[in-house]
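Mods, move this if it's the wrong board.
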Amino acid sequence: MSYIGPDFLAELEEKIVAKEDEIKAWFAEKRSGLAMPIYGSVDIRDANWKVAVVDANQYPAGFNNLQDGDIGQHFRDAIGGVRHVHIWPESHTRNPAYEAHLKSLSNILEAEGYAVTVGILEYTGGQPVNVNGAVPDLILLNNDLTDGPLPDLGVPILPPPEMGWYQRRKSAHFRAVESLVEEISELLGIDPWLLSTKWFFSEGKCLDKDTCRTLLAAEADEFLNQLQSKYDQYGISGTPTIFVKNDSGTFGLGIIEITSGEELLSLSNRKLRKLTYGKGGNEAEDFLLQEGVPSALAWNDMVIEPVAYCANGQVGGWFYRANAKKGEMSNLNSPSSIFVHPSEIEDEAIASRRKNWHMLVAEIAMLGIAIEAQSF
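Not the wrong board. Structure tokens:
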């Protein structure tokens, strides 16, 4: 399947550069009223005619895939005079890639002068948690809390534990960014669809109920018709696609692609199990149905997508996820993916896109995460 459309992002490059000061002022005004997330990462899709964040992570892994950048300084801006930072990790720390991530994250913080410890601490109540008798100044949470909240540890915790997947919802994030995208699109004089994905929400174990699944399939067809209208409006060829995702969770679990409502009605047991399987064996009940955005970016005959790492709400590092076994509309986050540093991609157009459009949507997503956290 091939997707061909106008190269709006290249055509509008001069506009985003010309509006740079206004965009900076807009971000400064928005950030002034919010507690910006200490860190986060976003997956971005660039189709040439549009660019959009398709996933926003509050407790990111993957710091071992970064090679340089300003993220250390952004951490310092976020936590200032703190001395001892304790990283509270996921429980699967025997995973070599995750161990490498924790080491890289520790190194970034240590390079900024922080004393760093790592591990899940026992807490008996009554006194703040401690590491060999020393009470940390800050716990940097790197556990997405799928299984439930943390107790009061007696020490400041960032990001807020309330943002754990035991209660956070992807749909809440995309709802939070809608008005932000509308504002920045008005500033740029463009259609907000060029900076976002359309989506809708299904709740209450709908896929387990035949009547509900039939209604959901009809909704999916109507949604696909809306996307086709956008494709027709802008002269885009290719078949609109919906990604059906677990509304709660990460790691690329619980994702399937459909191009018709009928595909929901005829889901095999295998695909249904894949869709409803969540991290830790938790069963998915609610689903985000999100517009698929094809990736027009490629390197060494592989489809690639940018992944931005942020601290204090600002981009501080990048890598590209590449996958030789996946197509332009596919979810690239699979075991066959590799990670490519920007310095390996000698393409000035991609570099310019990263500096302008990709950074723009990444930092809007950080505002969205801040708005989400404010709601708890």
